[in-house]
Amino acid sequence: MAYKVLLIDDEPNALEGLLLLDWASLGFEVCGTCGNGRDGLLRMQELEPDLVITDIHMPLMNGLEMIRAWRSQSGREIKFVILSGYSEFEYAQTAIRYGISHYLLKPIFPEEAAEELEDIRRELEQAERGRMMNELVKCGETTALLKRLLLEQPLQQSDARLLSKLNERSDNWKVCLVEWEPEECPGLREKAALLLAGDAPVYLLDQEEGQLCVICGISGDSPASFGRLDELRREYPGAAVYIAAGAPVHMLERIADSLQTARIALQHYFYQPEASGLMEYEAVYERPFSSRYDHIRLTDALMSAVNTLDVAGFRLALETAEEHFRVELVAPEAVRKFAIHLQYRMLEAVSDVDGNPFGDMLADIRGAGMRNTSISLSGLMGQLASFGEAVIGLLVQERQDSSHGTVGEINRYIGEHYREALTIQKLAEIFYLHPVYLGQLLIKKNGMNFNEQLHGLRIGEAARLLREQPQLKLSEISERVGYANYSQFLKQFEKKMKMGPNEYRHAKT
Hints:
It contains 24 helices and ten strands. It is α/β, with parallel strands linked by helices. The model is unreliable at 134-138 (pLDDT under 50).
C-alpha cells in the first residue's frame, strides 16, 4: 500500500526538487501539488492525502495558517511536514505547538529527505496499528471526543451528553505524555496499558510512533497512575523513556491546555541528566525557554576552529556554546536546528574531499528532527564534538597530502607578483584557503612568515637595481619593487641589508 502525499509550495524549483524523489520506493505516491495554503485546504478535502509537505511562506495563506485551519475544520487526521529555511525557526516553533514533529530543511537533500520519509512511513504504519488497537480496546466515541478536545476541534452536537458524563468522573484532569524510542522499548505501549488497567478514570491515546498521551482524572497533586507509569523506566533499564505531566484543568473542555503544558515539561528533559524521572510542569513553569541566542557568533567561532584545523579551539568553542545554551535555557528545538546547520557548514568544508564518510553521522542528529526528547543537550554536544573532530582530522590529512604542491604554486605566484599590492588575504582568496591556515602553511614550508618572504623579495630586487641601474632615484626603485610608502621601503631595506640604500649603492659602485 502506498500512502498519498500532497506537496504545497509556491516555489517551482522546490516542488521540482520534491517531485524528483523516488516516492514509490519509499512507500508513497504524489497525489497532487499546489502553490498556496488556500488551494491546499481544497486539495486536502478533495484528495484525502495521508501526508502533506508544506512550505511556511506562501501567498494567500501560509503553511501554518493552513494547518491551523485544517485542524479546526476537519476531523480527519493528516500528518504534516514543514519545509523550513534556517532563518524561519520562529515559525517552526509554532509548528511544534501544533504537534508537528517532522520538517525538511531547504535546500532539499534527497538522502536526508528519504530518511525522514522512511520515518514518517513507519509512523503512519504504527498509527494504523494503533488505531486498530484503540478500536478494539477503547470506546470509539470516547476516544474520538478526547482527540477532538486535544486538537481543540469543534465539538459535535452528540458530544455534549458524553462530555458531561466524563466530567462527572473527576473534578480535575491532567495529561501525561510518555515518549520512547520504539526500537529500544518494544511493547511499551501495551505494558503501559497493563499498568493502568483498572484505574478510573484513565484514557490512553496514541499520539504518534513512540509517544502516548494519558488523560487521568486526579484528586491530588498527581494521580497514582503517573507513579505506575514511572515503572516503565525500570522495565527498560538503559533505554530512553520520558514521562512528563502537564498542569491540571478543572474540566475536559480545557484538556488541550494540559497537553500543551505537558509538551513544555517534556522539552525540559533536554537539559536534564539521562536518569531523570517524571517531569512535572509545576516544577519547570517558572523557567521558560528562550529563543534569543547569537547563532552567527557561535557558528563563526566553531567554523573558525574547523577552518584553522584547531581541535582544541573547536572543543573550547563547543563548550562555550553548550554553557551559553544552559545559562540562557535556549529552546531545545533551536539548539537542534543550530546543530543541524553547523553540521551542514562542516560538510561544506569537506565537500570536495574524496571518500567523504560523514553522511551517516549527520543522520544521527538529523534523525532527532524536532522531537522533544530524542537526545539531550549533552548527547547532542557529544555528537557534534565527534563530528567536528572527524571533519578536522580529514581536512588535516587532505591538506597534508596536497600542501607540498600548493606551497610551490603559492611561492611561484609570490615571486611573480611581489611588486603588486599583495596581501595574505588576497593570496587566500586566489588559492581558496583560509588566511590563517595559509599563513601557518607558509611558515611551516618556507621557514618564514609571508611578510618576511614578501619584503625579502622586494629588497632583493631593490639591491639589484641599485647595483645595475645607479641612475634610478630611490623613490623610483621603491615604487618598482612594490612599496607605495617610501619610508616603509627605507625601513625594510635597512632592516634587511644593515645599511641604507644610498650607502649600499656607494659601497657597490
